[in-house]
């Protein structure tokens, strides 16, 4: 592998979280030790084009410099040429002999839903984070809830609704939701990240509007009963041996932690560590590990819960397999409070990616290999 770890960072993406991904990539590039890593940027544009840069020779100070253009040099270093790569597959295969491990930081669809992980598997490249199945299940709220139910994890009541059914019999869907879940309830696209397309409905009129909005983003919708309680979150780190961070609490200024609150502040307060009893923190940590194992997680995840202080009930909300990863995002801040700084967290994730790849290579691919 040489003296330096050759780390490729894939960022951007055809996603509503494009800008968040750029900031994440920039944060990682600034945080890693240049004596330990050689960085190769791979930028996925908003229209889905792929632009691969040659290794970066020095620190990139401005996030704008990461918007690579075909045929131009990355502005921070004359040595950083850029080549246009026409297809996703060839881009990754071109990286095969040039990088040791990939850190994909594209959020949302085509980034954390198993699709890019599948391409990395085809290219035979080690990568940070969960595999194809865990990424897909973690991204799809409907499947995730089914897996959590199978694992015996307590969660609020929910209903899955297909857009085709909604278009065919909206009134029947609304009546079912009212009878089984009641108001208020939350309506979500099954496969969107970062609270995009999510609404809280307090009556029938709002429910119709919420269903119509969610259906613009996905063909599969999830409707959840209202969860009374404090929003608490924890980070999980590891492959087979897991550690957890401290617990943090989200105190939203709005009625729920929506996209505006998550990425534009909007008065939301993050309390780290959360002011909750140790016994509750221990239950959260244990349940988070169970959720991580249930989806076959690897590398990292942030697991979100509702804790009802009055009844002492704990409900799992969701698992995020590619959580926000700037130094000011919840996941790194939770681990910083647990004594693991941002740069060390990156080191650990890269090590876990390489370990997981080596573990996978133990598998035989043909029966003849047994002879």
From TrEMBL:
Predominant location category: cytoplasm
Recorded family membership: Belongs to the D-alanine--D-alanine ligase family.
Location in the cell: Cytoplasm
Catalytic activity: 2 D-alanine + ATP = D-alanyl-D-alanine + ADP + phosphate + H(+)
Keyword Lyase: no
This protein's name: D-alanine--D-alanine ligase
Record pathway: Cell wall biogenesis; peptidoglycan biosynthesis; Glycan biosynthesis
Residue ranges of every copy of the ATP-grasp domain listed in the record: 145-351
Protein residues bound to ATP: 141, 186-188, 194-195, 224-231, 317-318
Assigned GO CC terms: cytosol
Positions annotated to bind Mg(2+) 1: 304, 318
Reported function: Cell wall formation.
GO biological process: cell wall organization; peptidoglycan biosynthetic process; regulation of cell shape
Active site: 17, 194, 329
Keyword terms of this UniProt record: ATP-binding, Cell shape, Cell wall biogenesis/degradation, Cytoplasm, Ligase, Magnesium, Manganese, Metal-binding, Nucleotide-binding, Peptidoglycan synthesis
Group of enzyme by EC: ligase
Record-linked InterPro entries: ATP-grasp, ATP_grasp_subdomain_1, D-Ala_lig_Van_CS, D_ala_D_ala, Dala_Dala_lig_C, Dala_Dala_lig_N, PreATP-grasp_dom_sf
HAMAP family: Dala_Dala_lig (MF_00047)
A molecular function (GO) term: metal ion binding
Enzyme Commission (EC) number: 6.3.2.4
Cofactor(s) of this protein: Mg(2+); Mn(2+)
Cofactor binding comment, as recorded: Binds 2 magnesium or manganese ions per subunit.
Residues the record lists as binding Mg(2+) 2: 318, 320
Biological classification of the source: Bacteria, Bacillati, Bacillota, Bacilli, Bacillales
